[in-house]
Amino acid sequence: MKNLIIFPDFHSTLKEPFHLAQKEFLKYVKTVYTLNKDYILLSLGDFFDKYNPEPKLVSEAIHFLENETECEHIILAGNNTHEVNNLTGQYAIQNLEALERIKCIYEIRRMQIDNLNILLIPAIPDKVWRKQEYKSFQEYLEMKIATEYNDMEFDYVFGHLNITESMFSDFVNIDFINCKKENIICGHIHNKFLGSVLPMSIADTKYTSQIASINTETKAIEKFPIPQFLQYNQVTYPNDCELTETDGQFTYYNYFEVLCEDSKIAEKYYKDKYGKGFCIYKFMNPNKNVINEKEEGRINEQLSNKDYLKLYCQTNTVRASIYKYLDKKLGAN
C-alpha cells in the first residue's frame, strides 16, 4: 500500500517573494509527509513557471526530488505558456526526466497503482493534435479515450485541463470519461479543485488551495488546506510594514500593493529602506482611478480597458459568456 500525494500547480520561479515562499511550502510538505518509499508524489502540471527555467531553478528542483525525498514522482506536463518551447519543442520538465524516480507525463495514459486505476491527462500542445488533423483538442481527447480506453472505468482522473466554464477559452468537456465526477481533479485553473501551491494573483487568495492524499488500497481520499505562505498586503506610503511573518515553524512572505501618488518615489523609498526583500505587485493612486501594474521591474502607466475587464472578471463572479461578449466588443473599438 502506498499514499498518493497530489499537489497543485507549483509554478517554480526565482522571482521573489515567490521563490522563498515556495521553499517554505516544500519545507511544510516534508514536515507533514515522510516522503519515503511508501509515498508517490503527483504534480498536476506547471511545475515550472516558464518553459525555459534557469539552471539554478532546475538544480534546486533536482536536489529536492533526488536528495530530499525517497519516493517516486509523477509530473504532468503543463500548458504551453509554462511548459513548451514552441521553437525547440522542448518541455520544461524534460530537465527532470533523467532522474531515476521521476515519470514525466506528456501523453494521455492509464496507470495502475496497487488497487488504484487512474487516468492521466497532461496539457497537450496544439501542434500535437493539429498534426494528426483533429479540429480541436476536444475531438482529439474523445477519439483517444474511445480508441484506447473505451468503456474503462477509472477510480480517479488527474489532468492539467480547464473543465469548468470560465473566462478562459480552453474549456474541454470530459463528462464522457467513465469516472465519478468528484474523483476528477485538475490543475491549471487556480480557483478550482486543489488550486495552486501559492496564490499567483490576488484572485487566487480567495480560494483555499489543498493537497490531496489517496490510499492506493482503499482508494479513500483526504484533502488538507495549504498554508498561505505568500500574503498579498497593502501599505500606504510612507508607512512602515512587515516583510515577513512567522509562527515559529514557518515563514510567511508579503507581497505589497502600495498606495501612493508617485510610484517612482514610493518604490525608491521602500527599496532604500527595506532592500530587495520589499516586493511590489501593484501601485495604486488613491486619488485617481488608475492602477499601475509592476511586473518584472517594469511599470505600466495605465491598464487598457481590456485589461481592466480581465482584472475585474478575475476578482468577481462573471459568466464566461458575458466576459467573451464584452471582450469582443472592446476588441472591436
Please tell me about this protein's structure.
The protein has 333 residues and is α/β, with parallel strands linked by helices. The chain has two domains: 3-225, Metallo-dependent phosphatases (Purple Acid Phosphatase, chain A, domain 2), CATH 3.60.21; 230-302, no CATH class. It is built from eight helices and 16 strands. The strands form three sheets. A six-stranded mixed β-sheet has the order 4-3-2-1-9-10, with no helix packed on it. Strands 11, 12, 13, 14, 15 and 16 form a six-stranded mixed β-sheet that branches. Strands 5-6-7-8 form a four-stranded mixed β-sheet, with no helix packed on it. Helix 2 links the parallel strand 2 (39-43) and strand 3 (72-76). The longest helix is centred in the first third of the chain and has 15 residues, at 18-32. The termini are far apart. The model is unreliable at 295-302 (pLDDT under 50).
Could you write a compact summary of the structure shown?
This protein is of the alpha/beta class.
Question: What's the layout of helices and strands?
Answer:
Elements: E1 3-7, H1 18-32, E2 39-43, H2 55-67, E3 72-76, H3 80-83, E4 102-105, E5 109-113, E6 116-121, H4 126-131, H5 137-148, E7 156-160, E8 184-187, E9 210-215, E10 221-225, E11 230-236, E12 244-246, E13 251-259, H6 263-274, E14 280-284, E15 291-295, E16 298-300, H7 305-315, H8 320-332
Parallel strand pairs: 1-2, 2-3, 3-4, 6-7, 7-8, 11-13, 13-14
Antiparallel strand pairs: 1-9, 5-6, 9-10, 12-13, 14-15, 15-16
Helix pairs in contact: 7-8
Radius of gyration, in angstroms, nearest whole number: 21 Å
Arrangement of strands in the largest sheet: 4-3-2-1-9-10
Overall form: globular
* Contiguous uncertain segments of 5+ residues: 295-302
Biggest sheet layout: 6 strands, mixed
The ordered string of helix (H) and strand (E) elements is EHEHEHEEEHHEEEEEEEHEEEHH
Q: At CATH's second level, what is the architecture of the largest domain?
A: 4-Layer Sandwich
The class by helix and strand makeup works out as alpha/beta
